C-alpha cells in the first residue's frame, strides 16, 4: 500500500504545482497543463519509486534506518537528482516563457514533493499496526 500511496501523492502534488506555476503564463490552459502533468507524473513517480526508491529503501531497511526523516531526506535527494537530470537533458521545454517561468522553482518544488513522498511512504510502511 505504501507504493500506490506514494505514487498518488507525488502525482497529485506535481499536478497541483504545475497548475499553480502555469497560471501566470497560461491562464485558462493551466487546467490542461495540470491534467497533462498528472497523466505524465503517474508513471514517472511509479518508475522513480520502483527503480530508485525501492533500492534506497532496501539499503536503509537493512541498516535499521526507518525514520520518516530519513525517508524524507532520501526522497528529496533522489527526486533532486532525477529532476536535475531531466532539466539538464530536456531543458528546452522548461526555458523561461514556457509553461513555467523558472526551471529552478520547478526543481525546488519537485524536491519538496519528493521529500513529502519519502516521508509519507516510510511513515506508512513502518506505522504501528494494531
Top keywords for this entry?
single chain; 130 residues; mainly alpha; 4 helices; elongated
Taking the alpha carbons of the first and last residues, their distance comes to 16 Å
What is the average per-residue confidence, as pLDDT, rounded to a whole number?
Answer: 85
Structural class per helix/strand content? mainly alpha
| Secondary structure tally: strands | 0
* Cα radius of gyration in angstroms: 15 Å
Shape: elongated
Helix fraction?
over 70%
Strand percentage: under 5%
Number of helical elements: 4
Give the biggest beta sheet.
none
Quick recap:
Helix content is 79%, strand content 0%. The chain has four helices and no strands. It has helices at 2-26, 30-62, 68-89, 103-125.
Structure report:
The chain has 130 residues and is mainly α. The chain contains four helices and no strands. The longest helix has 33 residues, at 30-62. It is elongated, with a radius of gyration of 15 Å.
Write the layout of secondary structure elements.
Blueprint: H1 2-26, H2 30-62, H3 68-89, H4 103-125
Amino acid at each position: 500500500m505504501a507504493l500506490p500511496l506514494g505514487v498518488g501523492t507525488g502525482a497529485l502534488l506535481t499536478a497541483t504545482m504545475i497548475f499553480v506555476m502555469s497560471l501566470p503564463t497560461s491562464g485558462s490552459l493551466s487546467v490542461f497543463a495540470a491534467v497533462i502533468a498528472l497523466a505524465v507524473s503517474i508513471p514517472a513517480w511509479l518508475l522513480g519509486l520502483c527503480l530508485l526508491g525501492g533500492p534506497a529503501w532496501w539499503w536503509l531497511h537493512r541498516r535499521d534506518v526507518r525514520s520518516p526523516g530519513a525517508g524524507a531526506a532520501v526522497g528529496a535527494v533522489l527526486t533532486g537528482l532525477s529532476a536535475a537530470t531531466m532539466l539538464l537533458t530536456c531543458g528546452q521545454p522548461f526555458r523561461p516563457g514556457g509553461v513555467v517561468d523558472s526551471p529552478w522553482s520547478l526543481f525546488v518544488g519537485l524536491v519538496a514533493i519528493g521529500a513529502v513522498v519519502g516521508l509519507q511512504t516510510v511513515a506508512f510502511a513502518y506505522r504501528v499496526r494494531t
